[in-house]
Write a structure and sequence with these properties.
By secondary structure, this protein is mainly alpha-helical. 37% of the residues lie in helices and 3% in strands. Strands 1-2 form a two-stranded antiparallel ribbon.
């Protein structure tokens, strides 16, 4: 973070306001043009398997937008970003995430086979 901040400060100090070039996405245009609609169209809201859930509340505490009620563990359809932070943090694997269409699982798995390193664009 410190190095990132220093790089930004250098850019400001040198008055280098050139526009950065971010690589084009390989995702279909309808997803990148309409990110919220595309996400909701492709990815289901996380579901909780009540028979497995121990109601620890880890999912509700981890949700970045507060879409999970801490008392009932109900997920708000309107607030949920489908980031799946709740799925990742669940100690009992009670939260599950799925694509709307099973064929997408294979498509996105194939896209993620080759590991890419993070890039920073300043």
């Amino acid at each position: 973070m410190r190095i990132f901040g220093e790089n930004i400060q250098k850019k400001i100090d040198t008055k280098n306001f050139t526009q950065i070039s971010v690589p084009k996405s390989v995702l279909p245009k309808f997803i990148t043009e309409f990110p919220d609609s595309g996400t909701r169209f492709l990815i289901r809201q996380p579901q909780v398997k009540k028979s497995v859930c121990n109601a620890c509340g880890a999912c509700a505490r981890k949700c970045p937008v507060g879409a999970i009620d801490l008392n009932t563990l109900e997920i708000s359809e309107q607030k949920c970003l489908r980031c799946y932070a709740c799925v990742k943090v669940c100690p009992k694997s009670a939260s599950i995430a799925e694509f709307c269409w099973p064929v997408l699982r294979a498509v996105f798995r194939h896209m993620g086979i080759k590991r890419k390193e993070n890039e920073t664009f300043l």
